[in-house]
Design a protein that fits this description.
The protein is mostly helical. The protein has one domain (about 10-85). It is built from four helices and no strands. The protein has helices at about 10-25, 35-50, 60-65, 70-85. Helix 1 (about 10-25) runs antiparallel to helix 2. The protein is globular. The protein starts with 7 loop residues before the first helix and ends with a helix.
Length: about 90
């Protein structure tokens, strides 16, 4: 997904549409610990940095906020509530 001519907004959009759903698929059906959520957040940060061509030492928090990317924990919680609502 690393495309040198794409703006960070386009890269963030592609990440939200392709990578994030793949990363969170099925997590609402599983019980997960805080350690697993931190690992998923770390994976998400590494994927975003790779897509943007940044170094691994860049901070995740400011990057996620600037690109309007939700944390994995928020997405999983929203999906769990949606699953409960539908059942």
């Amino acid at each position: 997904m690393l495309y040198p001519g794409a703006t960070p907004d386009v890269q963030a959009y592609l990440y939200k549409c392709i990578c994030q759903p793949t990363l969170t698929y099925g997590l609402e059906c599983m019980s997960s610990t805080a350690i697993q959520m931190r690992r998923l957040e770390s994976v998400q940060g590494r994927l975003i940095k790779q897509n943007l061509g940044l170094s691994k030492l860049s901070h995740n928090t400011a990057l996620l906020k600037s690109l309007n990317i939700e944390k994995i924990e928020y997405i999983v919680n929203r999906n769990v509530l949606s699953l409960y609502n539908r059942s």
